[in-house]
Structure formats: C-alpha cells, structure tokens
Amino acid sequence: MLFLPKILMAKFGELIKSDLPILLDFYTDWNETSSSMHPVLRDVAAAIGDKGKVIKINVDKNNELAQALRIKGLPTLMIYKSGEMMWRQSGEQDANTLINLINEFI
Predict the structure, then answer these.
(1) What is the pTM of this model?
(2) C-beta separation of 41 from 27 below 8 A
(3) What is the dihedral of CA 56, 57, 59, 62, to 10 degrees?
(4) Whole-number mean pLDDT of the chain?
(5) In whole angstroms, what is the distance from residue 30 CA to residue 21 CA?
(6) Which end of the chain is more exposed for a tag (fewer CB within 10 A), N or C?
C-alpha cells in the first residue's frame, strides 16, 4: 500500500495509466470512517499482491485533485485501469468486496 504526499494533476494522469488495476482511497486523517479503512486496505493490498496497486491519497494535502475528481464523501474509493475509471464508491467497503472488484479488472 502506498501513501502519496501531495500529487500534481499531471502526475495523477501518469499514475492511473497503469495496465494494472489501481485502487485509490481518498481519505483524511481526521475522518473516523477513513481511518477505519486503513486495515481493510492493507488486507486488500496483501491479497492482490503485484496484480494491482492500492494507493491512499490524503484529500487535505491534495485539495485541487479532490476538487477536480469531485470528492464529496469520505472515504471515496476508485478503481482505475489504463487511465480509465472502472468503479467508484463513497463510504466504507469490506476487504472481500474490494478484492473481488479488483480481480474483475486483472
């Protein structure tokens, strides 16, 4: 699992171009639901191994990106593959649901 500091919009475009599915978690440290997703996402990252990526993006440090992607609720989870958004959901998800979703795009 990768925690990204501030990310520029241009870098975001490069990040999501991967042929591997990428699960993005938009979170804040002060949001309780966001914090409760940390262990779930660790489990997801361990389960998918090198077949995908799990990346956490702090909304407070990436406000411009969050606004561009219209992040309203936290956490907001997205799956990208080859530069295209394949799935998006706000709110808590369980590890099995996320693992199954990522496996659909491998």
Answers:
(1) 0.92
(2) no
(3) 170
(4) 92
(5) 28
(6) C
